[in-house]
Design a protein that fits this description.
By secondary structure, the chain is α+β, with helices and mostly antiparallel strands. A six-stranded mixed sheet has the order 6-7-8-3-9-10, with helices on both faces. Strands 13-12-11-14-19 form a five-stranded antiparallel sheet.
């Protein structure tokens, strides 16, 4: 068997090691100073994360940040170079995947194409010689929960992407796991189906009370689904906490720019007569009597598009393009230093391309960062 084929069967068997029992199946997952090297490449670097019982924890970050590798370490599909992993207080660092009590839902669904929906969902139970009445009971319950009852006799080829994903989730509900792992499960779906499946998975979490660890590069998924977000970059944890805590109080420029859509605007700033000003906005004063460590010589300020106010003006800044989305508009400006600047505006204000506007922002809505380290100052 080829390496790819062996990997597929290992993953699909892991995907069958999952659960549909009571809400008591809530466990904690703990990673302590976990590192992972692939030859000379350090992919995961000294990561420590606690996922509480019954929590919906989302690992989010750009492509290549290590989030899927971290999930595979928890699943047992990879072994850490250093550090330890516990599930429900038990050290599982080098325990076989099937013995960890975890179930995984993969991006590519990992369904057997020659099996029906109910055969795919019951695969793990049948491999363990479970009694037929137990198999029927658990498959029926999962199918009803996921609205798959009418599709039980169909094969994957005749299902939509959203239906296939529900089958993969259903298989991950049927067998008996302590924690569910989702590896970018919605990335192959269109925008409408992604919204639908976000609601489905969130509803399942509330109904089961299960511990879920979910990987995505989509910050919208992270913000809307998570109890806790872990933001990763280059194998490091940049920040972790509740979604709105990270959104309102980012620890650094990376987190501030990653969470939020459209992204936070960043502009260079300087101190003039103890005031923090933005040269690109005509030396607009954004913080009066601003005190900063003398060792910090380069400053960046950030402001979210919805915290900026526009007003009609005969000079100042020109709107290059307007995205009108019906209930809101996004005005794209090019500033004096040639930087891009996005402002969210109500459509009643009716700004248009080529309009000249003035910009104002409240002091409380300005984030200040050390330009060199990226760390937040205020």
């Amino acid at each position: 068997m080829s390496t790819t084929g062996a990997r597929f069967f290992r993953e699909i068997n892991l995907a069958s090691q999952c659960c549909l029992e009571s809400k008591s199946l809530m466990v904690a997952v703990n990673l302590h100073k976990v590192s992972k090297n692939f030859n000379q490449a350090k992919v995961i670097k000294d990561v420590s994360i606690d996922v509480n019982q019954g929590e919906f924890c989302v690992f989010v970050g750009p492509s290549g940040c290590g989030k899927s590798t971290l999930l595979r370490l928890i699943a047992g599909l990879e072994e850490p170079t250093n550090g330890g992993i516990t599930i429900d207080g038990k050290d599982v660092t080098f325990v076989d995947p099937a013995a960890r009590g975890v179930g995984m839902v993969f991006q590519n669904y990992a369904l057997y194409p020659h099996m029906t929906v109910e055969e795919n969902m019951s695969f793990g139970l049948r491999m363990n010689n479970a009694p037929k009445p137990e198999i029927e009971r658990k498959v029926s319950r999962a199918a009803k929960m996921l609205r798959l009852s009418e599709l039980r006799k169909r094969k994957p080829a005749s299902l939509s992407g959203g239906q296939r994903q529900r089958v993969a989730i259903g298989r991950a509900l049927v067998k008996g796991a302590k924690v569910f792992l989702f590896d970018e499960p919605l990335s192959n779906l269109d925008a409408e189906l992604r919204v639908e499946m976000r609601i489905e998975i969130t509803r399942l979490h509330k109904e089961l009370g299960a511990t879920i660890i979910y990987v995505t590069h989509d910050q919208t998924e992270a913000m809307t689904m998570a109890d806790k977000i872990v933001v990763l970059r280059d194998g490091h944890v940049e920040q972790k906490g509740r979604p709105l805590e990270l959104y309102d109080n980012p620890a650094n420029k990376f987190v501030a720019g990653f969470l939020g859509s459209p992204s936070m605007n960043f502009l260079k700033a300087r101190i003039i007569e103890n005031n923090l000003v933005i040269p690109a906005l005509g030396d607009l004063i954004v913080k009066k009597n601003f005190g900063v460590d003398k060792n910090i010589s380069e400053i960046t300020v950030g402001v979210r598009p919805h915290d900026i106010n526009l007003k009609k003006s005969t000079k100042e800044h020109k709107i290059e393009f307007v995205e009108n989305l019906g209930n809101i508009s996004f005005c794209h400006l090019k500033l004096a230093d040639n930087s891009n600047f996005i402002v969210e505006s109500g459509t009643k204000l009716a700004f248009a391309s080529q309009d000249m506007v003035g910009i104002s922002v409240k002091e409380k809505d300005i984030y200040v960062f050390d330009n060199k380290s990226g760390e937040r100052i205020t």
